[in-house]
Amino acid sequence: MKKNNILIVVFLFLSVVYLSSCSDFLDERPQSDFTQEGTGQEDLISKYKSLGDAESELLGAYNSFKNDIFQMENFLFNDVQSDNCYVGGDGANDGAVDNFTLSSINTKVSQIWGQYFSMIGSSTNVIENTKLMEASAIDDVDKKRIIAEAKFIRAWSLFDMVRFFGDLPMVLQLIPTITAENLETWYPVMYPERSPEEEVYAQIIEDLNEENTIKHLTSQNKGAFKATKGAAYGLLAKVEATKGAKSSRDYNKVVKYCDLVINEGYQLVENFDDLWNPDIKFTSESLFEVYYTTESPNWAYWVFLKEDDGSVTWRRYCTPTHELIAKFDKEKDVRYSSSIIWKEAPYDVHYPASRYPFSYKIREKNSNIILMRLADILLLKAEALVELGQPSEAIDIVNRIRERAGFDASYLSRDMSQDNARLAVEKERQLELYMEGQRWYDLLRNDRMLDIMRNHKDQDGKLLYPNLQEYRRILPIPQNEMDKNTRLTQNEGY
């Protein structure tokens, strides 16, 4: 007798959201159906009966970009962990990020692991169930598009995760209902060893394959809260600029994918502040941004900036560092007043309470959160051109960004050395992309983390982390995950 049963789709590793214990796993709701369970020859049947079913679950996967990790942790681990910000708030788990005292039992580490792997699982559910749909339920164009969009979401998640944790456990198949009879067979699949970084990157690049993925995405020249060709090319450019040792990277590929983004027709907005105006959404500069309204708000504005009435009643997170503020030309650089606002605060931890700086790019509850934009891609291209021995061309791009920032009569020399051009691009990315979740990734990608952070100083000029160790470049594997999966190994140093 055939029997429809629960299917749990696991891609990589079951997160704390999907799995907190073996008994929790058995209680999961259906993701697809298996027939002839226990025979070893189970047939898969999609749980999607219509295009609407697939679109609905794809929307759910997109909404993963509204999780905590994209409203706080993205900034906590990229801006606070770097030299951009002090933690600001007084939570012990958050403070450990700023002070490089993270351990495997820190809740922030578990949160990142759980929410990203939940996101990976959601997108994989869409991919696999859509593949299995009957031709009568969905046409081929929609089928390929939905799979492509879900692969973009999965690739984004994997890319962030491999940069946070390094080697990752990977599962590339569907798993049926776990029973006493099949537990021994499927347990090793559910709880795999960590795969090397290069295998994870290979999967990311496969998910962003031109023929199977990007070809089926829509093409447009303005922002969207959906996967587009421009966003996928931008993600590929970042992947190629990051994977492997810096000396072995193919920077021609980085330039190629950056140019493919540019060729989509995106344009820098004339007024930098328009990017952060909550009423101006999906500009010509935006590649991928998360949509919010007053009815469906973000909560990041409240964490970083203010209460609804504009007041500050408790210590906000992501306080700009003295070093960061000192790098801005406060007279010429229009980005300064768009990125940082000074207000009175009921505390004086890093600055006088009468005049305290706050991060200002997420200003209201209806502010969209921009996760990728053209200026980022242009400066990434400049970074690649420097590595290809073309510093003059790189500085041309930097000057284009600086001109929009207010330096129209203060162009950098095209004749600078390769080393100086590297530093010029690095500084421009820091100022242009402040509080956009980029700085830590930039330091890692360019082997600059130790140099920058060991020389990072507090307001009194005292070195904060002179003895910072290399192992802090990645995070510890959460202890609760290692307790569930004894095949996991801990990252060195933790």
Written description of the protein model:
With 494 residues, the chain is mainly alpha-helical. It has 2 domains: 7-196, Alpha Horseshoe (Serine Threonine Protein Phosphatase 5, Tetratricopeptide repeat), CATH 1.25.40; 218-447, Serine Threonine Protein Phosphatase 5, Tetratricopeptide repeat. 43% of the residues lie in helices and 9% in strands. Helix 6 packs antiparallel against helix 8 and helix 10 runs antiparallel to helix 14. It is globular and about 65 Å long. The N and C termini lie far apart (51 Å). The model is unreliable at 1-30 and 35-41 (pLDDT under 50).
In CATH, the topology of the largest domain is named Serine Threonine Protein Phosphatase 5, Tetratricopeptide repeat
Largest sheet: 2 strands, antiparallel
The number of helical segments is: 19
Tally the structural domains: 2
CATH class of the largest domain: Mainly Alpha
